[in-house]
């Protein structure tokens, strides 16, 4: 019994130390790690001037997104559709998802001010949630094509349904103001 | 295992983990990808 409890103790210790170390190590750094949030995005030129042609993001698998309040950054997907760019947040109705994707709840509840770093360039943006509308088809198509193996009619329909039922949240990375 | 030895073992494991995660980027990246895979599979 004693040895069993000792083994259980070590099996609990390993993930606890791992999660705590990874969480603390990146929390103040310039940008996030693969999974854990990081600090303020500092490096990189700050874009100014007219909106760029966002189609270049088709070749960008993930970007870094930092909320202003609360200030933290993380890596997320990006989709271009109709000349605008969007970021998704999935698993929003599951228990783990609500813990994991806290940034989306914070963005939706707050002012949505954010900084996105894409290929080393920072863009000051505002996250505006997309709940429905004709643009959803194009966004779902890009999401399926880029991250789910192909934009089949079934995949697009599933993506639209996922947004409409609240399982996936979509935010437009809109210009500020 | 005696308590003293057990605590020493826990300390060694903890320190090794922390040093590996902080100073071996490939190890921390691998661990994060495993956790990400777990979340992607189970957060449904």
- Report the CATH topology name of chain A: Pnp Oxidase, Chain A
| Full CATH superfamily name of chain A | Electron Transport, Fmn-binding Protein, Chain A
* Sheet having the most strands of chain A: 8 strands, mixed
Amount of helix of chain A: 25-40%
Ends apart, CA distance between termini of chain B: 40 Å
**Cα Rg of chain A:** 18 Å
**Biggest sheet record of chain B:** none
How much of the residues of chain A is beta strand, in percent?
15-25%
Order of helix and strand elements from N to C terminus of chain B: HH
The helix-and-strand class of chain A reads: alpha+beta
**Mean pLDDT value of chain A:** 93
CATH class of chain A: Mainly Beta
Give the helix tally of chain A. 5
How widely separated are the two ends of chain A?
64 Å
The coarse silhouette of chain A is globular
Query: Helical content of chain B, roughly?
Result: over 70%
Question: How many β-strand runs of chain B?
Answer: 0
